[in-house]
Specification:
Distance between the termini: 30 Å
Order of helices and strands: HEEEEEEEEEE
CATH superfamily: Calycin beta-barrel core domain
Strand content: over 45%
Shape: globular
CATH architecture: Beta Barrel
Length: 149
């Protein structure tokens, strides 16, 4: 991958920078969703994007993720770590306002697709999971709303 292409892919992630409120649909009907926020900021040097999140719900872990371009493959990856001790690596893409994350892993594959609205301040997305690597099921929907750039 050329240095110019890698820089462009990193620069595209500027769309995420800021503080976002999160609303997720994993609570039962009639129960208010938990308070949740995530922030995205550049690590010094502007080669990696750092995401931190907090969800005020016992079933949703807090965590941190580092997003960057893998030097060997040229692909964007998210390295995910959470308060349960989980560590995962997701493939990631962001093109034309569509954010995708995916992880193929025996017994527990996941994928996410989120779409930025025209203002760039709302991301509406869906998480799915697969336990057999073939059949995908809806996990939950989520909306990110920018609170501060």
């Amino acid at each position: 991958m050329s240095t110019d292409r890698k820089r462009q892919d990193i620069d595209d992630l500027e769309a995420f920078v800021g503080l976002w409120g999160i609303t997720a649909s994993f609570t039962p009907p009639g129960v208010a969703p938990p308070a949740a926020e995530t922030s995205f900021e550049w690590l010094e040097g502007r080669h990696f994007l750092v995401q931190r999140w907090h969800v005020d719900h016992p079933d949703a872990p807090d965590g941190i993720a580092i997003v960057g371009i893998d030097n060997e493959s040229g692909r964007c990856r998210q390295h995910f770590f959470d308060s349960r001790g989980e560590a995962r690596i997701y493939e990631m893409s962001f093109k034309d306002g569509v954010w995708k994350l995916w992880r193929d892993h025996p017994g527990f594959s996941q994928r996410f697709t989120g779409t930025f609205d025209e203002s760039g301040d709302v991301i509406t997305g869906t998480f799915e999971l697969s336990r057999d690597g073939t059949t995908w099921e809806h996990d939950f929907d989520t909306t990110y709303t920018r609170l501060r750039a």
